[in-house]
Amino acid sequence: MDDESQAGEPSVHAGEPSVVRRPSSLLRLALIADGFASDPATADRTVAAARAGALWVHLRDHEAGDDAFADAARALADRLRAAAPSRVRLSVNSRLNEAEALSAGLHTGRHGPSVDAARRALGPDALVGASAHDAGEARAAAGADYYFFSPVFPTASKPDHPGAGLDTLRRFCRTVPETPIFALGGVTPERVAPCRAAGAHGVAVRSGILYADDPPHATRQYLHALRRA
């Protein structure tokens, strides 16, 4: 199985101008299992990706009710931990109660609690992240362990939202140099290196893996690109 053991190493990329990435223990690939509770095939693809090395999985499903989400999350968590024992890190999007139940991290999201509220509920050692589209949103979520910055590139899921671009990503990374940034939105394996050069710690991926013809192969492509970047 592929791994991302290099995740904590700082590095500087040549180019205009360089951004120094701070050391971090976070993995560089975050897989967003969007719709896993509503679509069993998405759960199956998520497990296949985990076996191939996608070891940080975000459980997200805005359409599922609380009970359906809870049942599906616990079932998928069991499958993921069986697929990669003791190695899969779980985060839950927005739903604090389920993060507590699974002893998982929380990605606050637009429907979830504040970073401070999540930290109070989950404890000081919990992994708490937030989404941010600009410096103002990052300040509003101060104290997060990481940020998802999106959309970097245009995506089919959000046709009315043009991609922010690499220059905007680079500026955003400079505003929070101590916090790992994950580039999200239209990030293909070929775009991993430019995102890393702009200062991103890693990438967050949904359709690039889950909608691929071969999710394990797509996972390995992302991991290979991250190792080389």
Describe the structure.
The chain has 229 residues and is α/β, with parallel strands linked by helices. The protein has a single domain (19-228), classed as TIM Barrel, CATH 3.20.20. It has nine helices and eight strands. The chain has helices at residues 40-51, 66-83, 96-102, 115-122, 135-140, 166-175, 189-197, 207-210, 215-228, and strands at 29-34, 56-60, 89-93, 105-107, 128-132, 146-149, 181-184, 202-205. It has an eight-stranded parallel beta barrel with strand order 1-2-3-4-5-6-7-8, surrounded by six helices. α2 links the parallel β2 (56-60) and β3 (89-93). The longest helix has 18 residues, at 66-83. It is globular and about 40 Å long. The two termini are 19 Å apart. The relative contact order is 0.16. The model is unreliable at 1-22 (pLDDT under 50).
